[in-house]
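Comment thread on ticket #2218

A.B. wrote:
> Attaching the input chain for the structure job we discussed in standup.
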Amino acid sequence: MKIIVVEDDINTLDSITNMLINIDNNFCIEIASNGIDGLNTIKQFQPDFIITDICMPKMDGLQMLSELKNEGYNFFCIIISTYPEFEFVRRALGLGVSDYLLKPVSMIDLANAIEKIRTKIINYRKNLLTNCIKQYISNGAGIDFDAFHFFNDNFNKYKNNTHIIEIYLGEYYNLFYQKCLTLINEICKNYSYLQCINICIEEYKCIFLVIYSTDNTISIDKWLKNGLLNIINNDCQYHICIGYNDCKKLSNNNLFSAIKELHENMDWNIVYKDNKIIIYDQVKSIKTNPLIYPIKLVANINDALCKENYNELKMYIKRLFILFYNNIYSPKQIKEVCTRLIYNIIEVYEKIYPDKIEFLKFQIFIDNINNAISFSELCNCFSRFFQYIIPDDQQSQNKLISLTVLRAKNFIHEYYFKHITLEEIARYLKVTPEYLGTQFKKELGINFSTYLKNYRIQKAKELLITTDLKLYEISKKVGYNDIKYFSRIFKEVTGKTSADFRNR
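C.D. wrote:
> Ran it. Output below, let me know if you need it in another format.
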């Protein structure tokens, strides 16, 4: 630690300097004989704390500290003075002085004061470093270099690697993070030289552990697997995901490069499954198989969706995840296939339920897939997706739409902008209008004319939102040549005029 002693009496200065050397011969000590010299030396030397007298020529100690405070310096200070008056003590405490000792000071009193100030510095710098790392991870905020240097110089006793550990809790973050922190602190107490910083990042749903000092007897790999992983899993009854990386020195560039590398590779948990530790160096050497988009399986999924056979749909999705589970594919490939499949399902879903499509909500599922870290989390993304698209009516899950009605729906979707009738579609499908109308209502729960009307108005809403077309142009594009009739139907279906809808 760096210390400056500001004292005009040469004998007192020598005495304090000698005591400091006896207390800790690793102290780096600078001296100054008055407040002005002390002020200049502090700015150049940047000490960890200050020991100063009060009454000195040119500028006294309290004036010097006041100048530092006005200039925005954060300092820790011990005052050693011959003046016991309360006014001096009050002013010193107001400036944030940690201790006020009377001359002649004893080594015991000085050692105790230094131990208290050392504890304050450790806690201050530790909190500073924690906040720096947290802000950098969250939003790329600037780094306090003094905090890094302080920890390297004073606490990384063995000068070995700094270890970065990410404990990903995902959707269980709010439920378990406090419990995990307690467990981590209890585990660390069993290792006398293991010093670490715990950083909770809510937006990442994880806890980062920065281990900045360990002795050479600790194997981090074994400590993670046999200690941290098993204890947290057993206590929380939830399979957490753990990643591990290291950097050779606790410097800002090394640390944040290691954190970035680790977090970007945490999705390898999708490949490793449960109870594994993602080690960055090992991830780089994993050999993966090429993942070809399963066209036939997707065709089966589309067919099940068209038939609204949701049990069959779930079966095919399960087969897809069995494919992922039994092979070594990169998480990037798996996510790309899942994302492409979701878009494919959305395209089919839009045709089946034109009045229910909400792309903004679908985007949430895409984001969840891209942000998934574990295999179970990826599975849950699809479970929630199907809970959203499958109708609430449980009977509809087992209902099969006949090919005739499905073809009728597709005919409407393709030719809604033309003058089409039930009779026309019936002739096309080679059935009677009475049969088609009856089956349409029976299987879809809505008659033909209402379905056609709703579909046309849905398309009109899309054009009103996404284009600058005139109202009469939109009317024609959705199959209504009479704009007044279109306006009446639009308000009947939506409860709003087309102008109100566009300007909402």
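A.B. wrote:
> Thanks. Noting for the ticket: DSSP finds 24 helices and ten strands in the chain.
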